[in-house]
């Protein structure tokens, strides 16, 4: 009987310069898939109905919550980019590598996938269990690429708390999903077109 040989996988830390665009995309989709699975399982373990959590709201008022917070956050981000030195806002070049050559349709897909997966886990599952404050701390910690600088880490915390707040105010997960989507979409498009000009 022939013995099967399995390839050996080695997990190790990679610096942003070592990542290829393909590896970065694989990592992105893998982590978002994992985020989605954990979020769904967590909601089910809370004995909540996933369809109720993701139910489309009767009123379209959630759109104003999502658009309003996204507008405020994008303006604040723009102000921070002018006030704070570039090296203090550095994420190691990950966002540049992810969006600079990406087609527009792919940026839209990435923004949508990230918004749904992360909001389902963080607002839909975790915030329900531990509240918006601790959820925002956890959200800031998982955005590990910003942890080298306190300003972007603080900004991720504040943004997360804002997403949790509009979730509570609107009563629907679609408000933070919409807000998250718009922020990622506008940021991705800004990087994409800034690099082209």
Fold and architecture overview:
The protein has 197 residues and is mainly α. It has seven helices and no strands. Helix 1 (21-45) packs across helix 5 and helix 3 (61-83) crosses helix 7 (174-196). The termini are far apart.
Structural class call reads mainly alpha
**Structural Rg:** 18 Å
Low-confidence stretches are: none
Distance between the termini: 61 Å
Largest sheet: none
User: What share of the residues does DSSP label as strand, in percent?
Assistant: under 5%
Shape: globular
Supply database-style keywords.
7 helices, metallopeptidase activity, mainly alpha, 197 residues, globular
What's the topology here?
Blueprint (H helix, E strand, L loop, with lengths): L20 H25 L4 H4 L7 H23 L10 H6 L4 H39 L7 H21 L3 H23 L1
Organism: Paenibacillus taichungensis
Protein name: CPBP family intramembrane metalloprotease
InterPro entries: CAAX_protease (IPR052710), Rce1/LyrA-like_dom (IPR003675)
Concise summary:
The protein is mainly α.
